[in-house]
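U., I forgot to send this yesterday:
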Amino acid sequence: MGQNVSVTAPDAGCNPRYGQHARIHVTVTDAAGVKVVDATSPMNDAGGFTYSFSVPADSAAGAATVTAMPYNIDWCDDTGRNNRAYGSAGAGHLTRASCAQPVRILTIAP
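Result:
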């Protein structure tokens, strides 16, 4: 606890065009189910980002979950295609996407 941690992601290969003011929403939920980090941070146009934080001292030890999703935009596309860029030009141009929430495990030691 109190240790610095970085959450990072490389640029996406599908040119998502998030825009110059894009943000990433990062949450960390500790082993007791308490959300100990709930923050937004800058993300580049291609989806790459780095967010660093200190694990709060009062976090429950054990397996915590970390999620990072584009903030306030449609993040539901892990197909490798930019469905948002096609707009409503026709359903025939869209690729189905999985909307599973991306989660990684962070072990918090006492």
